[in-house]
Amino acid sequence: MSQPPKYGPLVLGAALSEGGYNISFGVGTNQRVWHAMLLDTGSSATAFLGSAYSPGADTGRTTTRFSQRVNYVQAPSWQGSVVKTQISVFGWDTTTKQNTEVPLQHANVAIICEPGDYFDGASGILALGPMKEDEATQHEYPTYQADPQFGCFIAHNPVISGQEKITPYFTQLVAENFEFDQFAFGAERSRPRADGQYGKGVLILGGGLGLTNKFISVDTVGLSGYEVNVQAYSIGRQFLNNGQTPALFDIGSNKVTLPISQDAMIDAFNSHNTTCGKIVSRYFADEQITDAEVAAADWPLLSYQLGNPQGQSWNMSLTHKQYWQSSTKSAGQGYSNLVLAAEQGTISFGLPVFCAYFIVFDRSSASITVASPYYNFAQPALPDTLWDCQPS
């Protein structure tokens, strides 16, 4: 039996939306319809809305007796029936230097039958989590039924086992089509603008390390997510922690967080200068902050001290251009949004970090590598048609 073709690292254009960055995705063997899929690194189950899926046209679909359920901290949970079908992505093959469609036959994808806006307007979620196996529930009967009498999921389908494992789509894709179990991401913005000026993002499947030589490795902890230990973090010269703090790289979040109170954050900015402290205080009091105010102030660096596998420390820093972003315009006046939040728990490295750095996730070794800064990545070599995101 012939082996499927191997592709060079595939570069996909990613479009910024309200919930994060989307790529274009083809679901179904005979369906030439492309849909927006929300990128996420916090989970590994790839899912698609039943309202956007036409089972009658999908002659290659195979039902299974599995279902999946994913619970998010700050987003609606979903349950879906697992089917096996063709899933396609479209991008720029860095080896052949041409636009290429990469199909994957018999991919596991959960079809969500319950109506709802689970993914901020996108038709599904492309999960790139590090897990090589995904949790699933096995039922007595096939879980997907395209039947008006039952809907597409039989609610009273008896459960045989709640601790089964299936292979996630991205693990299947890499094993069949790419040499390296890696992906990489970098972006221009973490939030959309009301005036329609959205930022471009770049997702690379199956590689990323060969596209720039200015990388720093980061020590990772655990295998349940892309988590690192932060040795110290500071706003300007104000250090805010004692001891190591866990931090999670999360493409699905449009902000960065610090595990401190809002008052402590205001005090840290105030220690840099009182103008910054007053602006942040007003923002937390729900006042609008103009772009002009932000531009006129002298803002500190937001810095995180990380370790590397060689036992050395280095700083990953964000400027105010990453943690303040122009988001709305009214009567010719621009207003800024602070994408730095004070929340208890772990640190979240959301999209503002990906706007400052180009980051490669190596799933084979559970490692993270950072290109500093992002603009070293050679974007001009990519075709403008990349951001059309789908075949003509």
What can you tell me about this protein's structure?
By secondary structure, the protein is mostly beta strands. The strands form five sheets. The protein has a 15-stranded mixed sheet that branches. A hairpin with a 5-residue loop joins β22 and β23. α2 packs antiparallel against α3. The two termini are 31 Å apart. 44% of the residues are buried.
Determine the structural class based on helices, strands and strand pairing: mainly beta
The chain-level mean pLDDT equals 83
Number of strands: 29
List unreliable stretches of 5+ residues.
Answer: 374-380
Strand content: 35-45%
The largest pleated sheet is described as:
15 strands, mixed
Q: How many angstroms separate the termini?
A: 31 Å
What is the helix fraction of residues, given as a range? 10-25%
- Count helical runs: 6
Broad shape: globular
Spatial extent as radius of gyration:
22 Å
Give a quick precis of the structure.
The protein has 392 residues and is mainly beta. It is 12% helix and 43% strand. Helix 2 (262-272) packs antiparallel against helix 3 (274-284).
